[in-house]
Amino acid sequence: MSIRKELTSAALGVLTLMVLCGLLYPLLLTGIGQVAFPDNANGQPLYVHGHLIGSRIIGQSFGGDPRYFQTRPSGTTPADNAAASSFANYGPNSKVTERAIAADIAAYIALNGRYYPGGLSAAKVPVDAVDTSASGIDPAISVANARIQAYRVAAVRHLPLAKVRALIVRYTAGRGLGFSGEPAVNVLELNLALDRL
């Protein structure tokens, strides 16, 4: 077999695989996703009065506004930027991680400490309140985190604490498939429910 035939065969093989794997297969999966799971395939968009305001599966910054529950610290620049989703790759012994967590603990205590009964210490701060998630744009917080923030939100909004806690329960999703992970509170949906009160 001549070199020319081998190059032609190789080029045709690469072209065929590129069309199959790079074009037809993604189009097929996209089509199946749009038909079978349109909400998930489109990022679970959330609309209010016909206006897109966010996604159920992408974290959204509430800028430290004390009237709202705050999401986990974001690992993206700018904060909660879905186009820059990634993790930092800094290990637990990294000085960068240590400084970031210390700053996040201080910010969390500054935001919530004066509302929390008996004061808030670093030992009481939940891990998800001070450390980023793997994606850097997690839309949910732990129930423990939400319960601490509930004191602040109730006080600032002049709402009964029981009413805020009832909303936390309402917007808490259980474990994935009934056994995976921990229950989590969707921050965007919870904040929207607060605004509707």
Element order: H for helix, E for strand: HHEEHEHHEEH
Summed over residues and divided by their number, the pLDDT gives a mean of: 87
Task: State the helicity in percent bands.
Answer: 40-55%
Strand % is: 5-15%
Structural class: mainly alpha
Q: Round the Cα radius of gyration to an integer and report it.
A: 23 Å
Question: Could you tell me how far the N terminus lies from the C terminus, measured between alpha carbons in angstroms?
Answer: 77 Å
The helix count comes to: 6
Biggest β-sheet, characterized? Answer: 3 strands, antiparallel
The low-confidence runs, each spanning 5 or more residues with pLDDT under 50, are none
Q: How many DSSP E strands?
A: 5
Shape: elongated
Spatial arrangement of strands, main beta sheet: 3-5-4
Describe the structure.
With 197 residues, the protein is mainly alpha-helical. It folds into 2 domains: 3-39; 43-196, no CATH class. Helix content is 46%, strand content 9%. The chain is built from 6 helices and 5 strands. It has helices at 3-36, 38-41, 95-112, 143-157, 161-170, 187-196; strands at 45-48, 51-55, 140-142, 172-173, 184-186. Strands 3-5-4 form a 3-stranded antiparallel sheet. A hairpin with a 2-residue loop joins strand 1 (45-48) and strand 2. The longest helix has 34 residues, at 3-36. The protein is elongated, with a radius of gyration of 23 Å. The model has no long low-confidence stretch (mean pLDDT 87).
Outline of the structure:
The protein has 6 helices and 5 strands. With 197 residues, it is mostly helical.
Name its key features.
single chain; 197 residues; mainly alpha; 2 domains; three-stranded antiparallel sheet; two-stranded antiparallel sheet; 6 helices; 5 strands; 46% helix; 9% strand; elongated
